[in-house]
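Hello,

Our lab assistant flagged a job as stuck in the queue for most of the afternoon. It eventually completed. Since we weren't sure the result was trustworthy after the delay, we are filing this so someone can double-check. Below is the sequence as submitted and the structure that was eventually returned. Let us know if re-running is recommended.
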Amino acid sequence: MMLLISGCMDLNTLKNKLSTSREELEVGLTILETHGYIEKTSFGEACRTCTLYSECRSRNPQLYKITEKGMKQVKREKQTINNSNE
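-- returned structure --
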């Protein structure tokens, strides 16, 4: 989920950044989506507000973005890591 904090990403970008197969990635994304941590979004008007819009090479209609629930989970995980390092 950390990869999605900066904005939407398509399957190929996620696959390359995670060095995993497309099949494994799709399973993981389905699980995260089912639990409400991420959601599919489409290229469109919403993309213009994305911080990565000017750099985005993907005009793939199947993009993923982190949800508010996902952001809360990332913050909890960061806090747990910080607490364990103290």
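-- support follow-up --
The delay was a queue issue, not a problem with the job. The result is valid. The domain at 2-85 is CATH 1.10.10.10 (Arc Repressor Mutant, subunit A). The chain has one domain: 2-85.
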